[in-house]
Amino acid sequence: MAMEANTTDLDTVHAFSCGNPLCAETISRTRSWHRFCSDDCKQQASIIRRAAALLNVLADAEVLKIVRGG
User: Fold this and answer.
1) 3-state SS record for the chain
2) Taking the model in full, what pTM does it have?
3) If you average pLDDT over every residue of the chain, what do you get?
């Protein structure tokens, strides 16, 4: 007896999270070569990564002060 593959089952198996830490979207298997669900998410993740590198040398209290605009 052959099992029929359901497309939604395959999408679930091959789905993964967007590479942007602020995004909760899931990327389907059709976009499996992408790390991000959209160009906006890719750009936001790049900004977060660059800001983190710049703020890494500061004390936590100073980072919070800068991030919160105070």
Assistant:
1) CCCCCCHHHHHHHCCEECCCCCCCCEECHHHCCCCCCCHHHHHHHHHHHHHHHHHCCCCHHHHHHHHCCC
2) 0.62
3) 81
Nearest to 33 by CA among 58, 56, 16: 16
Compute φ and ψ for 41, nearest 5 degrees.
-65, -40
d(CA 30, CA 16): 11
Structural tokens at position 6: 């359901």
Both tokens of residue 61? Answer: 């209290």
| CA-wise closest residue to 44 among 25, 19, 67 | 19
| 34-66 tens-digit pLDDT | 788 899 999 999 999 999 999 999 999 999 999
Alpha-carbon span 31 to 42, nearest angstrom = 14
